[in-house]
Amino acid sequence: MQKKDNLKYLLYISSNDGTDMRINKEVRSLSAKYNVCFIGVSESAKTTSFIENYVFESHLIKGKRNHLITILKQITAYLKLVLKHPISSVHIVNEQLMIFFWPFLFFKHTVLDVFDSFFMRYGIKKRQYTIIKRIVYAPCDKVIVTDEARKGLMPDFLQKKLIVLPNYPFRYHGPISKSSNEKSIRILFFGWLGMNRGGAVAKGLLENDKRIRLIMLGWFADEDSRLLSNHPRAEYRGVVSQQMALEIAASEVDYILCLYEPRNNLNIVYASPNKVYDSIHTETPLIINPEVKIASLVEDLNIGIVLPSYHVESFKALTNEMINKLGTYNFTEDLKKSYAWESVQGRLLLAHEL
Description:
Layout: E1 8-13, H1 21-30, E2 34-42, E3 57-62, H2 68-84, E4 87-93, H3 95-101, E5 109-113, H4 118-121, H5 130-137, E6 142-145, H6 148-153, E7 162-164, E8 185-193, H7 199-208, E9 212-220, H8 223-228, E10 234-236, H9 242-252, E11 255-258, H10 266-269, H11 274-282, E12 286-288, H12 295-301, E13 304-306, H13 315-325, H14 333-338, H15 345-351
Parallel strand pairs: 1-2, 1-4, 2-3, 4-5, 5-6, 6-7, 8-9, 8-11, 9-10, 11-12, 12-13
Helix pairs in contact: 7-13, 9-11
Organism: Robiginitalea aurantiaca
Protein name: Glycosyltransferase
């Protein structure tokens, strides 16, 4: 992307390479108002980035994310960019990465984007470790969270700096074509492919019911998930853009897996997954477990099946339920308008206004 002389410079720092759907959306929106310089991490030399057309300058560090050497390389890239361009604002993703950049962030307008909180991951409550939290958040001018529930979990002293930016997708305008039948149920398992993120249920469905077909998109989080892709009724299509994932959901599958194994992890309990909103835009019902609070929204809107628990007792009964409920879900145009990224992306730009 060519430099736009009338725009300020913004530095976006992440432990991802730009393929994460949340990061992809944010960079695309910010690029309309800023010359975005991106610092990310790629664990594979063959990684495809989906933000190349939206960033003015990109520094993709090869290495393991969150490893000290990788982070030191990111810091080096940061210092070079700050010396090279008049950076007006810094956008940094998650507390654990910000801790390493902490000394350098007091000199720039800093926006922290929290959607995988270090504190929530370890079940640390709102009023615990307040002094440590004050230190960690000290450089932040604004802090972004994904929903009102997460906002309520953040410390009291931070509330005036918080901006709620929901994890909605860009509005999907492509065709929606469903050709379901009782002989085959097609399920989409995508994003972070782990046994504790739905892989165990996908495996159980494949092994217990021949009517199940599985399409897998995204990153393998463990070896068991990688092995699952070798099942004769599973198909792995690699890492794809959000637009491609939506097209597949809209035209090739009957249900989307959106499952989180229960743990003492507030990031899981208060998860705000893309998949809930992808479901709305592609008219593809979800399968979600009740241990995740957003499952109540799925039930209220009637956009999917809420399991009795994450641990499925009868996979054949679940397949029968999926078949019997096809065509009974409530997908409307008003719902799509309400849960579209275009309706909230202005909050992101507002966070970076000086």
